[in-house]
Amino acid sequence: MVIKSEDGRELRSFRFKDEDDSQEVRAVERRILLETFADQLPPEAIRFSSKLAKIGRSENGETLLELVDGTRLSAKQIVIGCDGVRSPVAKWMGFSEPKYVGHCAFRGLGFYPDGQPYEPRVSYVYGKGLRAGYVPVSPTKVYWFVCFNSPSPGPKITDPSILKNQSQELVRNWPSELLNIIDRTPDDTIIRTPLVDRWLWPAVSPSASSGSVVLVGDAWHPMTPNLGQGACCALEDAVVLAKKLADAINSGNGSVEGALKSYESERWPRIFPLTIRANLVGSLLQWENPVVCSVRNNVVIPKLIRIGPMLEHTNFACERL
């Protein structure tokens, strides 16, 4: 990893293995990851373009699902709500809307058809109320982001040319490689999103399961991307939930509802502190005060922060399923 200031000055660089020998960092394009998982399922197991509009229960206790295209489904077994930050399932279960945290992010994938020129490392650039980063995710693609403070989420913009211009204007005088990556970003990969999260409080927040309905990933615990753990936690949820359900089925005397409650109990100590920690890290990195930013760049990052102890959140032990 290399960390720079907005004027291109290197503040610090290191290898994750030197900080903590147990660490291994890999950047993966999300589309490729999802396609890899999907390819392991039987043909036609996934029904695409099936956004959920409503969820409810019938008189006999079955879960009823209505899709935006009018299709109605009756789920006799388990419904897993993994439908993202604005989950209708989470809303039906009593969860509040995720809260805007005060900053937005542009994100995209720079494309180099003849091969991208960057080393396999994470690069960050810190400014005042503004930060950016980029990392190669394949021989031809480089993921990048620009995160900026904003008092409100602002209007939704879908025109890719406007999004590209706005992101470039924010970092116009920053290191040129960042501008080059943004310039090489195809229109269909650039997005602008307000960052949100939902803090879950023990004994206060609704349960993650209701009967045979359960939440995983962003639908349950949306968090800001400052620790890079949102999608990772969703995968962990899936592993733990699958194991709990398998144990209940294989034992012959366990209930589905009991397995879902056990899943929730095991995941609480993991996702509750991570959500808060991600929020606090983002708030600290988005400082605007010039004096505070100077102390961060000249003292905190190069001399005080030790990355090793801060990476423990990436460790997740998983037994073979």
TrEMBL record:
Pfam family of the protein (one): FAD_binding_3
Residue intervals of the FAD-binding domain: 69-270
InterPro entries associated with the record: FAD-bd (IPR002938), FAD/NAD-bd_sf (IPR036188), MOase (IPR044560)
Recorded superkingdom: Eukaryota
Keyword vocabulary terms for this entry: Monooxygenase, Oxidoreductase
KW tRNA processing (keyword) present: no
One MF term in the entry's GO annotations: monooxygenase activity
PANTHER family: FAD/NAD(P)-BINDING OXIDOREDUCTASE FAMILY PROTEIN (PTHR45934), FAD_NAD(P)-BINDING OXIDOREDUCTASE FAMILY PROTEIN (PTHR45934:SF9)
Family membership: Belongs to the 3-hydroxybenzoate 6-hydroxylase family.
The protein, known as: FAD-binding domain-containing protein
Species in which this protein is naturally found: Eucalyptus grandis (Flooded gum)
